[in-house]
Amino acid sequence: MGKIRWLILVTCLSLFAFSDGRELKVWRKSKLPEYNHTLATILVQYASSVYLSDLTELITWTCCRCDGLTKGFEIIELVVDVEHCLQAFVGVAEDPHAIIIAFRGTNEHSLQNWVEDLYWKQHDINYPGMDDAMVHRGFYSAYHNTTIRPAILDAVERAKKFYGDIQIIVTGHSMGGAMAAFCALDLTVNQHEKSVQVMTFGQPRVGNSAFASLYSKRVPNTIRVTHDHDIVPHLPPYYSYLPQKTYRHFPREVWLYNIGLGSLIYSVEKICDGSGEDPDCSRSVSGNSISDHLEYYGVRLGSDEPMSCKIVMDAHVLNLSSRDSRGNIILSRDPATPLLKMSTTKFDNQKNPISVD
């Protein structure tokens, strides 16, 4: 009897050890990033604020979306590619202590942006070690072939010279999430940055299976947050029977959705698997909601202007900005110089609207 009990005990311990070791092995192999809810609620505010059209309020960080969890943030560079209706900023946050890069997503009233989003033809990516990788041409061009990339890289270089080797966090919503992914890959592969983190919201697919695999190896600290029936993460379509040609998400996804009945509603944050296409996450529902796309964690994401790509600046700020021959605008600040508290009341209270249709 004693021998039987001993045998049962040894067997149970062996099974426990085997199970624990197997889980540990899978975790190490996947190298998936850990989801941080607090960080997500901070970054979604940056992804929201970059949509705003008042450049004076953005550069001084006094806008209606520029408070709360992002208090103390100082912008180093704000760039508006008027020609392509794109916008991004680079700055340094107190908490988390990091360089923050945020990209504006698709302006829902801009036909030009929607045409870029619908231009699904894949394009070879000219990065070392990515021979089989194909990416969405419109999203790739929005980052690489506009005023955005050189302005971002210049601002990051200036920030690191002043603040040292601090972490870089890249974020964006919708098409801004796609641009954030390309920016993070660019910083890692071409600029040799060692600590780049990415968190996007409502991001579309950006490349094929080869790209998704290579991206996850180069920028492993990446999380894509999706919301319930949000339509955009379902685009461009994923076809499981065309694994080499179809678009595919890279990991890791965190899916936000509600469960309950009647007035008893509970919010769930589901940590998805490492496939990028977890059938139990956003792929388990139909992607048919625009309203789910425009709100994450209770924060509105989208343009504040009902008309196309209008931007507004104080006359004094307009004079301080630099513009190229195509009208693209860059507002820069030396990190060593305290942030100028420019406001519309300090100058002449006159705003000059610049509209791009």
TrEMBL record:
InterPro entries linked: AB_hydrolase_fold, Fungal_lipase-type, Sec_MonoDiacylglyc_Lipase
UniProt keyword Signal present: yes
This protein's name: Fungal lipase-type domain-containing protein
Organism: Lupinus angustifolius (Narrow-leaved blue lupine)
PANTHER family from the UniProt entry: ALPHA/BETA-HYDROLASES SUPERFAMILY PROTEIN, FUNGAL LIPASE-LIKE DOMAIN-CONTAINING PROTEIN
Gene Ontology molecular functions: hydrolase activity
Signal peptide: 1-21
Start and end residues of each Fungal lipase-type domain: 100-238
Keywords (A to Z) from UniProt: Hydrolase, Signal
Keyword Membrane: no
GO biological process, one term: lipid metabolic process
UniProt xrefs under Gene3D superfamilies: alpha/beta hydrolase
